[in-house]
Amino acid sequence: MSVGIHPFFSIATKRFNFCSFKRVGIAVNSYSLPLSLSGSHNRTPSPSTMGDEKLGLKSSESDKYSKELDVAVRVVQMACSLCQRVQESLVSKNNDQVKSKDDDSPVTIADWSVQATVSWVLSECFGRESVSIIAEEDVNTLSRADAVGLLESVVKTVNECLAEAPKFGLKGPDRVLETSEVLEAISRCNSTGSHPGRHWVLDPVDGTLGFVRGDQYAIALAMIEDGEVLLGVLGCPNYPMNKEWLKYHHRDFLVMSKSSPSTSESWNKGCVIYAKRGCGKAWMQPLVHKSEKLVWPNSAREIRVSTIDDPALATFCEPVERANSSHSFTAGLAHSVGLRKQPLRVYSMVKYAAIARGDAEIFMKFARAGYKEKIWDHAAGVLIIQEAGGVVTDAGGRPLDFSKGIFLEGLDRGIIACSGATLLEKIVRAVDASWDSSNL
């Protein structure tokens, strides 16, 4: 049965701003971040505050969740560096660092290593007892007798990454972490998010197929409080800062960087995109290269969604994998609303980054029957698009509900992200018109 357009569209066509929804007011906790910045005294503004001022945020805005955002961006930068090293190894040698999870999707040492690293940093910064983390990986595979070599690789990778923490403005451990400590950090991310309060949501490597194929993938970290996404950070190691480089595959970057005398900065490969609820802005900064240190805000620049609202000129993204998304249905929708360009099929939440940056205008995903969307696949990207001026709803025009735990419960048919309400309304109407004849 066709589902009518949600009355929220009466507001959306004027000014679609999710920040008008209920916000939760929370005082900033009085903890001190382990930032390894010399000369820091009480009379000196914190690195987070200084960074927010440079980004043009008012003092009232910069105070709220600024410490959490600061740590989140820094640890995602660390995770990107970790993933780049592992991916280069996978692309150059077809080794056994890829395993299969219970759902048959590939998982590499990067997944576990990133999860352990992020878990350890968040726990050290905000207190182990007060940090709740929802993440994708568990330790079952790593704990098997036949995974000794894999576990050793994960422990080694985590310690190498944490040793570089000062480069990213964070304090690393005083000693090398033991195997049991790494396993504990991974298994600590076992929250279900089913109760009110604050939860960090992590997808350590979103788009693992893209990762192992040397293509696009993302590290996604969000903070949710009482069901509302407050912070979102996307690390996109293979997504170039400059749009013109999008036509090149990651492997082409490797070839060009070896044959060209250009500096690493001129290639601008890889970025971290982030936003904070209620600011009405999203930001992008380049990845920190091997010889650099992160100096906040690391040449960050504001990003905005595209102003295109003509379907004939719009670009739409869809998942690469057919297993959990119907390409035929999205193709039919694209035709019915007048989309004429070929779809941009991209692995991972990089699709959300593409819309937030204005590289594409539409993302549609309609899962096959029985597939349930997980919050770690969407939380960070949804907030970033919203703060960059775009809109994200289910196929009925309703906001996504992040308050029900691991899954996006109550999702109406699919997910639609757009650069503006005009395109969104046309797609929702097209879904209503064609849904009954689909075989999803």
Automatic annotation (TrEMBL):
Cofactor: Mg(2+)
InterPro entries: DPNP, Inositol_monoP_metal-BS, Inositol_monoP_superfamily, Inositol_monophosphatase-like, Inositol_monophosphatase_CS
EC number: 3.1.3.7
Domain of life: Eukaryota
Segments for region (Disordered): 38-59
CDD domains: PAP_phosphatase
Keyword rRNA-binding in record: no
Catalytic activity as recorded in UniProt: adenosine 3',5'-bisphosphate + H2O = AMP + phosphate; 3'-phosphoadenylyl sulfate + H2O = adenosine 5'-phosphosulfate + phosphate
Record keywords: Hydrolase, Magnesium, Metal-binding
Binding site for Mg(2+): E136, D203, D206, D377
A UniProt-annotated Pfam family: Inositol_P
GO molecular function: 3'(2'),5'-bisphosphate nucleotidase activity; metal ion binding
Biological process terms in GO annotation: phosphatidylinositol phosphate biosynthetic process; sulfate assimilation
Skewed-composition ranges (Polar residues): 38-49
PANTHER family: 3'(2'),5'-BISPHOSPHATE NUCLEOTIDASE, PHOSPHATASE
Similarity comment: Belongs to the inositol monophosphatase superfamily.
The protein's name in its UniProt record: 3'(2'),5'-bisphosphate nucleotidase
Source taxonomy: Eukaryota, Viridiplantae, Streptophyta, Embryophyta, Tracheophyta
